[in-house]
Records
---
Amino acid sequence: MIYRTQSVAYPYFVVALLLFVLQVLMGLWLGINYFATIPQEIVDAFPFSTARAMHTNLLVLWMLLGFMGATFYLVPEETGSELAWPKMAIAQLVILTVTGVVALVGFLFGWTQGRPLLEIPRPLDVVVVIGALMFLANVGVTIIRAKRWTATQGSLLAGLVFLAVMYLFGIPFYENISVDWYYWWWVIHLWVEGAWELIAAAITAFMLIKLTGVDRRVVEKWLYVELGLFLFTGIAGTGHHYYWLGTPRYWLWVGGIFSALEPLPILLMVVDTWRDVRDRTTRLEPRLTWVYMFGMVILHFVGAGLFGFAHTLPAINYYTHGSQVTVSHGHLAFYGAYALLNLTFFYFAIPRLKGMPDHAYDERTGHWGFWLMSLGVLGLSLAFAVAGVLQTYLERVQGQPYIVSQEPIRLWMLIAFLHGLVVLAGVVVTVRHLLTLKPAAAQHG
Ligand code: HEM
Ligand code: HEM
Ligand SMILES: [Fe+2]
């Protein structure tokens, strides 16, 4: 930590980590619903849809808080100045966290807008918008006052503004249900395959510059190429959600062609990160931070690129649409790209925020956390994938009724749940480790 105001990032990380634990607990409860028969009284009091809304909204909330914390850490160093309004940053955290808690409690009482991932009711949307404006104003004013632009903070800001603007399209309710879903995807798809990718690229570039000491032009030059590709394939790629919505036929072509290109920039990023690192550093320290960094680029590519591509062509999506195949991809992509991005940043920033010598920390239990969590999510996603292929075959090729075809799938959902227990163990170890990070033992002299 070089600037005093960077410290506002820490409480963001803490809240994000606690919400992450809660998200995974909800996931386990969802998993149980798929292989056990839940007593009706419990279903009436706490339906699957409520738990699902909690699981996914917690996901979005903790990741966004993580991005915001990372931004508050990054912007002072990039601009070479203190954050404009550190107290407002804390107020914003309180506002957004309280809104999140109110939303979660509201779901329990059926207070919801209904659309997946964007369930939070409209009055709370207004508060979220206020929180987002506070955030953008704080970051924007800091950058403008400092008058020092870098490609890294430029793409970060572009991603954040794009993210906020897209959220607005999810607020109104359009009476025509096709139109409603059309815009729903502007939020969901253009977030994870547009805005969030820009943010991820910027945050990764920042960490690479700081961790390797490499000339920033080398990393940032690639940032431009990648940003261009992300935007190009990401925006047209929205079409892979428009196949069966009642939108015009040309979307079959646009969605099929462009989204098939989407994995390319991710692959470039993987290869280039590796090349940068190999050429310019002699040792990769701290080890665990790099394990996270590589874990992120690999699982980002596999989860989003490979698992995404597997069902993006219309001829395949015709069968797999909305099945457990989708759920499989959703888990591996979100975990690989954005859970690991956040955790990598936490491991990068917390030793600096706590002023640990050489930014080195005691890594031991942290490795356990990483592997339990990552292998757990991989197993979970593969089990969902098997369940999804079975479901697709039984229900859509053979034409079995939905509920009949669910029966053989139970086993695979149980296997998914068992992997979920491993994920939970990994998450608990990781969160504990991060929240009690200690300086490295003196062996390095
Ligand atoms: C990090 C990036 C990504 C994340 C986090 C992500 C996440 C998700 C999630 C959560 C869904 C389910 C949405 C729902 O219906 O509720 C989804 C659907 C989908 N994703 Fe991704 N995705 C990513 C990148 C990609 C890429 C690069 C491709 C294509 C190559 C892709 C192809 C698809 C397709 C075709 C669907 C629709 C599946 C269906 O018809 O049911 N995704 N994605
Ligand atoms: C203990 C581990 C977990 C289990 C057992 C679990 C289970 C589930 C289940 C059963 C669903 C509902 C699927 C449906 O509607 O049919 C779901 C949805 C979802 N979960 Fe998890 N989850 C876990 C952890 C995670 C993690 C770590 C992430 C991301 C980092 C995540 C992201 C998601 C997403 C994005 C959806 C929506 C998927 C879609 O719409 O296709 N989950 N989860
Ligand atoms: Fe998409």
---
Amino acid sequence: MQDRPTAERHTPVLRDRIVELLAPALHAEGAVFVDGTLGMGGHTEAVLTACPGAIAVGIDRDTEALTLAGERLAPFGDRFVPVHAVYDEIPEALAQRGIAEAQAILFDLGVSSLQLDEAERGFAYRMDAPLDMRMDQTTGLTAADVLNDYGVRELEVILRDFGEERFARKIARALVAERDKEPFANSARLVELLQRVVPAASQRSGGHPAKRTFQALRIEVNAELSVWSDALPAALSLLPVGGRIAVLSYHSLEDRITKRGLAVGATSSAPPDLPVELPEHKPWLKLLTRGAEIADEAERADNPRATSVRLRAAERTRAKPLSKAGHDVRNRYQNAGKPSETTTKMGETR
Ligand SMILES: C[S@@+](CC[C@H](N)C(=O)[O-])C[C@H]1O[C@@H](n2cnc3c(N)ncnc32)[C@H](O)[C@@H]1O
């Protein structure tokens, strides 16, 4: 753990734009802001400062993040409520606290700089550490479990789909051959294998040879895409009319789920042959961003994490669709970003 205060160690991506998008929904006294990915609390701090009547419920699956964000947000007293949960559990987490809706919701997806900075968490390929990569270290499979227990085909699919790794098959085969000699435990041995297996020409043009494999393992270990597919419709169902949601994605599959998820609400559901659009077919979301917004050059130069960000935001424009429609919405998410054969942890259908 480092000694510098949390706030100094971290700059939230697109902070001012997030405040600009969400603050109009948070002016009323007692308005609820849900930060579904609290991290080190940078966005929540900015929102609570800009919206003095609002309270914030900060969700994170990482207990260390909750502790650090709690220190940073202590000056806001009981306007900040920390919750240890996975973000697809937000409706239940709010209900337990007697909250039925949220006027604004933010998701800043992926790992935090805290998680990347701390060698022992195993997220960073530049530091030797146990192959853990769990955002919630209290539960679940580690990256070492995935590497040592998954079949060669499963590994290939994960590397290809979650890491967008061109050499997925070659790497998967090399991983299985290597673990047969001795199971994987630490990242240095994995990095050394990747340096050997990824062709030199690709290493020159495609960045660090371990980058894509580490990303793929992290997404698998934390079931990031399937959880996000469930979390987005659940979050949208919490928005009252006028409520707003903003999502920062860093991976094309994540952003695809976000784009399609918002499009479901922002598009008329009227059958094409119906001459008149009935009220129940009207869109119930208005997109607040044109396509996906990116960070400007200055922010990208200043914060490497901002280079791949895609921001999408929307506002609820009418009351909840019927539950049947809500059900349809969820089904349509389920297929939005899932790779062909596997998205979830070993043991589930692939
Ligand atoms: C990019 S960071 C958020 C940074 C934050 N916006 C800030 O300003 O400090 C993402 C955070 O989301 C958390 N997270 C990722 N997936 C999650 C999930 N499914 N449920 C709950 N928290 C999650 C991670 O543990 C991490 O702390």
---
Amino acid sequence: MTPRILHLVLARSGDQASGVRGLSLFLVPSHDDDGNRLPVTITRIEEKMGLHASPTCQMTFDAAPAELLGIEGEGLRAMFTMMNHARLDVALQGVAHAARATAIARAYTATRRQGRDGVTLDAHADVRRMLDDAETLAMGGRALVHLAMVEMERGEHPDLVDFLTPVCKFTCTEAGVTAANLGMQALGGYGYLREYRIEQTLRDARVAAIYEGTNGIHAATLAGRLLRNAGGAAATAFARFLAEAPEALDVWQRARTVLLEAEDPAPAADAFMRLTAHAALVVVWQRFRAAADHAPDPQRLRHLAKRAAARAPLLMRHYADLVVLERAEASSCGQRPGCRAALGNPGGPVPSDRGGFKPRRSVATGSPAPAR
Ligand SMILES: Cc1cc2nc3c(=O)[nH]c(=O)nc-3n(C[C@H](O)[C@H](O)[C@H](O)COP(=O)(O)OP(=O)(O)OC[C@H]3O[C@@H](n4cnc5c(N)ncnc54)[C@H](O)[C@@H]3O)c2cc1C
């Protein structure tokens, strides 16, 4: 494709025990200035589930000359400069997968007739549900990334961008997989065949939740570093963003408090991320509803906004309760000798002398706390 490739390589320059601080960023050219090939070798083309138009390979850089970029030991930090934008780009991949799945499913279900009345598939309530859900995921995700990217361009609220970036990556890549799955289901048997290409959308969408940092790592970052660092500035910026949706803010703030009190936020990180995503989407759909008159199809947008508004409190309550449950379970596990070791996490936080967390009330509903 090009006579010379410059590979950006993260490699360990410190000893094995140096952890991420031993990683440095290098520039490794495939050819020298005279055009001679350097020892940069492809050892294997990976066989993947999807993304077949974009080959992935394993490479070796045996004694290849490399130039250090930036400061030694700060490779990960340097790479994050690039990755922060890349995460929003991957979030947009999720949006594209969700939108593509919706488009395929809408086109197909508008023409195939089924059932006693001979109506098209999209006239059946269950198919309509799937189409509505898929389109809601695509539109909500697109608006969320749009918000984050506009904030990034403006540069006035970097804390909010920090907070929204993993939320966008998680939410939109999950949306891509879920919408592709819904789309496949809406097509029935043809969805599972290659003909309509929705199986390709599902295969391609899956990796977005894995690469550019797995969604589990993004959830852990949100529940850990972004709630705590710099006095929780990023989380406070997000709370300000939620101010226009007071009920969502209230549920989210209570879950935030539960996590701040937790010795180890990791077990509840996934639930907290999902709660955060739903809370952010409340703001998004409120704004959609307010602007519906300017949409190409105002009635459709109002319909989706109304559905989203009706479902959001239930979903938030569910994930807020899960935050409490996960935290309580982790706490009680921490009191039992050997419990963390049995989970393969002997290096995890030590049990508290004060004893485990005893939730009195459910975060969202005020109902009795789940049994431990
Ligand atoms: C098609 C494809 C393209 C790729 N392209 C690139 C690329 O261009 N550049 C690049 O650098 N990389 C690339 N990758 C690598 C990709 O970023 C990694 O696969 C991904 O970050 C996950 O790392 P891992 O595979 O080592 O999984 P692991 O780190 O082994 O993770 C396995 C599981 O354990 C969880 N886990 C791991 N560590 C922790 C922890 N500390 N706490 C809690 N949970 C944890 C993860 O969330 C995951 O669920 C690509 C991967 C694929 C599949």
